[in-house]
Amino acid sequence: MAEVENAEALAPSIASHISRDGDGKPYLTGTKCSSCGHVFVGGREVCAKCYARSGLEPVRLAETGTIYTWSIIYRSFPGIETPFIDVIVDLEDGAHIKGILKGVEPDPEAQYFDMPVRVQYEEMVPPGADEEYLVYYFYPADQEA
Amino acid sequence: MSDDVYVIGIDMTKFGRYPDRTVPNLAAEAALMALDDCGLSIDQMQALYCGNLGESSGMVGQRTLAEIGQTGIPVINVANACATGATAFRDAWMSVKAEVYDLVLAVGVEQMGKGLLGGGSRKVSTEGILGSGTMPTMFSQIGLEHTRKYGTTFEQFAKVSVKNHHHSTMNAKSMYRIETPLEEVMNAEMISYPNTKLMCSVNVDGSAAAVLASEAKVRELGLMGRAVKVRASVMSSNPFEERQLAMPDFSAATRIAAKNAYERAGLGPEDVDLVELHDCFATAELVHYENLGLCEDGQAGRLIDEGETALGGRIPVNVSGGLLSKGHPLGATGIANIYEICTHLRGEAGERQVEGARVGLTHVVGGGPGMGTACGIHILEKA
Ligand SMILES: [Zn+2]
User: Do A86 and B136 touch (CB under 8 A)?
Assistant: First the structure.
């Protein structure tokens, strides 16, 4: 009974690749292909790279990496606060994931290529929603949580 | 007699905003214009291939025939992101190539709202939380990937928009026909760095249509004079690419299609006199110079700096004004690009004519986050 109440108290995840373990601790879900070694974000049963249909193992994704490419978004859909920095991050385990870089002011001159970043989980109320969701952001790796 | 397929009639509406018209009504206009272009009638067409995205479950092809003549021919409705028009054209081409028909009609049409494209349809959107799913964002990141590899600058990307807007001043069918100097492009509202508002394609309404025929049919009709030969009609989808699940890839699909198209045509990029490529954003055009082999990898910035892709340059690109200024009615774009090339090969492009053009290439590529890519390339030659 206590377990169920506890589960209900946890904010739901905003995307299927953000999960929680038995202790409620958030993590990013991934899949590693044991044939070619590619690490995918999220779950899957067939490898898109080498077409293997078995040997796809669920893994927890790395939580540090570097920025491959980026953009600063000044115009988004109505109700979405801008500007923000959209980044494509190469995680240390080889996975590639999209997210937002927080902790620095958006500045086109700054050129964010190769910046080391870390994942931080947060709970927030998305625009238009009426409850908190579990999300993740990236922060510069040298910024403490 | 060869099994070559020819375009004998082709035209497009002026691109613009027609909120009071319907999608089939827009399609009907271009269809009739294409028929008039070759002096034929709808009852001579053996099949209709119709491309549209916005009403893709709405049998747009049949509704188009309801406006121009219900002859009972087979109608094939297709939707394939920004390659929708090219897909309809290619299906039409294939049906003639396969000798199922020898005279068919292809039409592409779209009616669009203003504003940003992209995003998802999830109940709770991740926009602004796990990143941005807008089209400008995808193509800005692809542009900055080019910056990462080759040092391409914001100014070089902006020059694409200056060029294509300039070209459009010579095209009466273009949505916009205004000069946009470099400072104006760079100082326009920033949408997703480095693409400003003037570096994003224009959402417009419009349609384009083509009549395709077998060589025997062209000769029988006596229409070889203005006919344009389809030297290659090629499509591809996104192959596996290292980062494609995080950032959709448009380059790998384009490279596959380009390689296959040049092989099919028995031609190389050096044989091409003009190109209409998918400049949905200014950043995209530079990346596609390399994907289409117009220059070596890393040389796209130099190409735009030296004016090689401007009208009068070595290999003019998007002399129609491109998607950036002529406009981008998604389902119509693939056939509108073919119209532009045919117009030059026929020597009928007026003040924007690429002198002596004999071979032209069209390219469209579309897709989105979590979806995939559709690419279509056509190589056309003066008959
Ligand atoms: Zn694999």
Answer: no
DSSP A11: P
Distance CA B89, CA B332 (A): 10
B127 Cα to chain A: minimum distance (Å)? 7
B250-267 burial: b if 16+ Cβ within 10 Å, else e: bbbbbbbbbeebbeebeb
Query: pLDDT confidence of B338, banded at 50, 70, 90?
Result: very high
Say how many Å lie between the first and final Cα of chain B, rounded: 14
Residue boundaries of the structural domains of chain B = 5-114+204-230, 131-198+232-382
Domain B5-114+204-230 in this protein, CATH class? alpha beta
The pLDDT tens digits for B102-137 are 999 999 999 997 777 775 555 689 999 999 999 999
Burial zone of B62 (CB within 10 Å; 0-12 exposed, 13-18 middle, 19+ buried): middle
Length of chain B: 383
Which pTM does this prediction carry? 0.94
Say what the ipTM of the complex is.
Answer: 0.91
> How close is the nearest chain A Cα to the Cα of B282, in Å?
14
3-state secondary structure of B222: coil
CATH code of the domain made up of B131-198+232-382: 3.40.47.10
